[in-house]
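Question (not urgent): is this output format expected?
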Amino acid sequence: MAADLNDVRWPVQTRRLLIRPATPADTAATWSFRRLPAVDRWMSSRSASLDEYRTKFEDPDRLAKTLVIELDGVVIGDLMLAIEDAWAQSDIQEQARGVQAELGWCLSPDHTGQGYATEAVAELIRICFEDLGLRRIKADCFADNEASWRLMERLHMRRELHTVRESLHRSGQWLDDFGYALLAEEWRAHRRHG
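Got this back:
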């Protein structure tokens, strides 16, 4: 049976943070940091106004895979958890349904450098492997987004992909991309060995 975000007991509490499914009421809070140049620079889409952002954020398909990060009741970031099918040969595709996920994250610049992103994404990975029983996670970023790929490496994700000038950035430059992944058994081995 494919994993489903409804299988998780929300909200999830970490040492300092609360992670929960996003609601339309989170639109303005997430817009407050996603519109900032330091954040917007790495996002795959840009919105010119709160109304335009609201249309995207509140789209049911997007909202269904968006989580928010709260610190003392204030939204300081958001996470994406998109459960997906693995590739499989056609006669066994059913066995590959909903067994992996693509992850994403965004944190307010006011809250960077304090370990919140690491804490939130570590918990997101735990949710994927323990609560949802997924077998693999992956995440991508521009190679120039050092903070993002360093976070993945801190969390023991493996760089599997380095594409050269594959992605056109809104700056007009063609940029390299990095792709990272982690298997459930790798994650468990890292946890056992501290």
